[in-house]
Amino acid sequence: MDVYLETERLVLRRFTAGDVESLTELDSDVEVMRFLTGEPTPREEIELKVLPGILATYERHPGLGTFATHEQASGRFVGWFGLLPTQRPGTVDVGYRLHRDAWGLGYATEGTKALIAKAFTDLDVDKVVADTMAVNTKSRRVMVKSGLRFVRVYHVQYDDPLPGTEHGEVEYAIDRATWLAGVRA
Questions:
Q1: Half-sphere exposure of residue 31, counting CA atoms within 13 Å on the CB side?
Q2: Distance between CA atoms of 69 and 175, rounded to whole angstroms?
Q3: Domain limits for position 75
Q4: CATH code of the domain covering residue 42
Q5: Can you say whether the dihedral through the CA atoms of 132, 154, 64, 43 is positive or negative?
Q6: Alpha-carbon Rg for the chain in angstroms
Q7: Exposed e or buried b per residue across 127-149, where buried means at least 16 C-beta atoms within 10 angstroms of its C-beta
Q8: Alpha-carbon distances, residue 61 vs 38, 68, 86, 131 (angstroms)
Q9: Could you give the CA distance from residue 79 to residue 97 in angstroms, rounded to a whole number?
Q10: Domain count, the chain
Q11: 3-state DSSP of 42-58
């Protein structure tokens, strides 16, 4: 297993070509996909587009990517966390997608905090950002608990908008200096 990061309760590892089933199962839950696409991701799309894209990111952007996440204690696949490049130099995007039975256990905050710390301590990152639909209050709460701060509401035009899109998207962020000040406090 190519371990990327370990937390108290989680192990994050690089995905492999053999992870199609795990991703398909995760993306087949409509509630998991509610604020993303609103519908399951077809297996074929995961096999031909999603997973190859994840694997390619490891090569193009060393140290960054989307990482399969397992419980330390049981080894159970609970979802993924990502630390991904953005169009802004020195800025990465943090995100996650967890199985519904892993919700409410603090995993989202634990994994997000660990990735933010890695970005500022091991990688040459100046700023970490995250975004979600404004109506996704649970993810917004995770962002705040993880140390990210509200930046703005913005609107994106979609051909087939999800319910709640009219309220916009929200961006949260933290820069290296703010993070370091919090760590020293």
A1: 7
A2: 25
A3: 3-184
A4: 3.40.630.30
A5: positive
A6: 16
A7: bbbbbbbbbbeebbebbeebbbe
A8: 29, 17, 11, 21
A9: 6
A10: 1
A11: CHHHHHHHHHHHHHHHH
- Quick one: tokens of 147? 């140390």
| pTM more than 0.85 | yes
Nearest to 128 by CA among 182, 85, 86, 175: 175
Q: What is the pLDDT along the chain (185 residues), one digit of tens a residue?
A: 789 999 999 999 999 999 999 999 999 999 998 888 889 999 999 999 999 999 999 999 999 999 999 999 999 999 999 999 999 999 999 999 999 999 999 999 999 999 999 999 999 899 999 999 898 999 999 999 999 999 998 888 887 777 888 888 999 999 999 999 987 65
